[in-house]
Design brief:
This protein is α+β, with helices and mostly antiparallel strands. The protein is built from seven helices and 14 strands. It has three domains: 65 residues, RNA-binding S4 domain (Structural Genomics Hypothetical 15.5 Kd Protein In mrcA-pckA Intergenic Region, Chain A), CATH 3.10.290.10; 94 residues, 2-Layer Sandwich (Pseudouridine synthase), CATH 3.30.2350; 113 residues, Pseudouridine synthase.
């Protein structure tokens, strides 16, 4: 089966080759994006262009994507996927950039679940076939700590903990400018964007969403924030930061400045799941797992510090 998605080209991708823009918007490999274009599954303003055609902000893309397989995903080695902790009930990983939590519509790249399967890990069978063991997710472009359930008991316990907000989720986010106040709480409902189904927005009547932030370090053009999530909506930090006009640096989907991202060598949003704490589902002990900044995010900070 296939499904079609209709979305505008963000201004930040203006002038990019179609295959490159498609890969960035949908998390596809350039090869997959090129194949979709060559097969006539991509229209730009109603016409079928070549893969090398340049896209322009505001143009409308219509893309026909294959549905993901509903069977358990095949094992697939994932470069850079590191295991931080492993026991009979849970496995905690340090997720690299460009890796999704599990297969989803339009995503043909690597996933945490496939990577763990390739490493020989047994994952809980609870949940949909393509996302067994997954109790929470990180965007493909977001790095950091992610927990996966191995036992059925752990799956139920961790799903309940996330639902009841007893999990401590802490992120680091580099945002444009300087939030005022430097420490605060953003409480604004989030739901699907009313006109762009590939992203989310602050929407009246949306799901309750609460983000706490504090400035850890200020630079000339940006601020490094410590972020504590009280809720866990899709794209929550990215949406809330954009809503207060301080988008995550490099987050072109939510209005970040592409020039600043290029100067810092970033090809994705500067957002990292730094710390994850929860009550262990088997022992009841509080456990905390921490991930260091990956090289691309650290490089951006080094550049900013050298300029300050």
């Amino acid at each position: 089966m296939t499904h079609s998605r209709l979305l505008p080209v963000p201004d930040g991708l203006d002038g990019l080759r179609l295959d490159a823009a498609l890969a960035r918007l949908f998390g596809l490999s350039r090869t997959t994006a090129a194949r979709l274009i060559d097969d006539g599954d991509v229209l730009v303003d109603g016409s079928a262009p070549s893969r090398s055609a340049k896209v322009h902000g505001g143009s409308v893309l219509e893309v026909t994507l294959p549905e993901p397989e509903t069977a358990v995903p095949e094992p697939q080695p994932v470069a850079g996927l590191a295991v931080l902790h492993d026991d009979d009930d849970i496995v905690v990983v340090d997720k690299p950039v460009g890796v999704a939590a599990h297969p989803s519509p339009g995503w043909t790249g690597p996933t945490v679940i496939q990577g763990l399967a390739a490493m020989g890990y047994r994952i809980a069978t609870s949940g949909a076939a393509e996302r067994q063991g997954v109790v929470h997710r990180l965007d493909a472009g977001t790095t950091g700590v992610m927990a996966v359930a191995k036992s059925e008991h752990a799956y139920s316990a961790l799903k309940r903990a996330f639902k009841e907000r007893t999990v401590d989720k802490r992120y680091s986010a580099l945002v444009q400018g300087h939030p005022d106040p430097s420490r605060g709480t953003i409480e604004a409902p989030i739901d699907r964007h009313p006109s762009a189904d590939y992203k989310f927005a602050v929407v009246a009547g949306g799901r309750k969403s609460i983000t706490h932030y504090e400035t850890a370090e200020a630079f000339r053009a940006a601020s490094l924030l410590d972020v504590h999530l009280e809720t866990g909506r899709t794209h929550q930090i990215r949406v809330h930061m954009a809503a207060i006009r301080h988008p995550c640096v490099g987050d072109l989907t939510y209005g970040a400045d592409p020039v600043l991202a290029q100067r810092l060598g970033l090809t994705r949003q500067w957002l990292h799941a730094r710390e994850l704490g929860f009550e262990h589902p088997a022992t009841g002990e509080w456990v905390t797992f921490v991930s260091a900044f990956p090289a691309d995010l650290q490089h951006a900070l080094d550049v900013l510090r050298a300029e300050s």
